[in-house]
Amino acid sequence: MHAGSRGGNIVASGNDDRTVEAGAGPSGVSINRAGNLVLVANRNAATVSVFRFANGSLTPLSTVTIGNATSSPVHVQFTPDGPLREVARAPVGDWAQGIAFSRDGKTVVAQNMADRNLAVFRFDNGRLRDTGQRIAVNGGPAAIRTADRQ
């Protein structure tokens, strides 16, 4: 899967590449656990494109407006039970590029590219609280994921 071409396209890679139209400035992609739904954050359009993935093909389902001209999505992620919804908002650093949740869903880390750090939040009872903790990194973080421990 590739996102980020100038034309606002997503390319489903495999034996037979196909291009489908997403919104302007596709920058984040998430695939649900079942592998049949794909979300694309369109940072220049303030939208999220929703696609169905079946039989090697992406089919557009809908487009959801999230944000505005000064605050657009750059990252999307499925919740464990699958629905697309906004659960909380909090100010983050300069040019926030993505988030990752801990396995228990109680810690949220936001990456701030221009500030060159990771901001740590706690998510409890539907509220997002800034812990004030910042983890400095050498470069501007642009992609973040969590890994399960074995």
From TrEMBL:
Residues 1-26 are annotated as: Disordered. It comes from the Bacteria. Coiled coil: none annotated. This is Lactonase family protein. It comes from Neoroseomonas soli.
